Amino acid sequence: MSKIPLERVDTNRWRIPQRYNPEMRVPGIVYADDELLEMIIGDNALQQVANVATLPGIVGHSLGMPDIHWGYGFPVGGVAATHAEDGVVSPGGIGFDINCGVRLISTELVHAQVRGKVDKLADELFNNLPSGVGGAGMRQLSQTEMREVMVRGADWAIEEGYGLPGDLETTEERGCLAGANPDAVSSNAVQRGKKQLGSLGSGNHFCEVQIIDHIYDAEAASALGIGQPGQVVITIHCGSRGFNEQYRIPVNDI
């Protein structure tokens, strides 16, 4: 068990009191049920919640969400707010590629159709989804295309045949935030990024084939394209690869 003292606030909240470390400026709060808490304790992420609570200017609490796990400095799944006037600014608290996306793709397949074919399916996914540090995507973009990606986001991908128009309706901000300025991005970042689109990278990024075990809310499940237990779905978790890593270097040096 963790040596960090935990006080139960309610069914799914736990407090790390400031007495644990005199340098903590605020308490820590972790959102987890009993089962999740066991995994969180084993990962030592609670120590990072306490560490974040020592940052200058932090207000309220150092928070840990249910998906919390060990990060570079902050825990991944950690949340902290600092005062605008005298609070610390940390561009890489949990790492530098922190605007990752997670996407659920529903399929018309059911478990019985893929049972016995898992190894072949895994091989096909591995062959078609480049992964690992430095892994390049299936398509290398031109300078012009890279600028289009930066400005248009998911709309560009759909126009190129990598998605359906309806996907935009179920994507945050329709897959594109306004105000992007490609001129603010270094040529080094563009060079790294234009050959990595469509790849997974490393870390905890993944493409995972999953089976629906139980449907708790039929209406919510239907909105996600989930219709029955046993349905095959795919979850993808990825970030912006070397493009963002290269972009952050001059920012981090300020």
Automatic annotation (TrEMBL):
Entry-linked SUPFAM superfamilies: Hypothetical protein PH1602
Keyword Isomerase: no
Bound cofactor: record note: Binds 2 manganese ions per subunit.
Top-level taxon in the UniProt lineage: Bacteria
GO biological process terms held by the UniProt record: RNA processing; RNA repair
EC number: 6.5.1.8
Name used for this protein in its record: 3'-phosphate/5'-hydroxy nucleic acid ligase
Record organism: Ktedonosporobacter rubrisoli
Source organism phylogeny: Bacteria, Bacillati, Chloroflexota, Ktedonobacteria, Ktedonobacterales
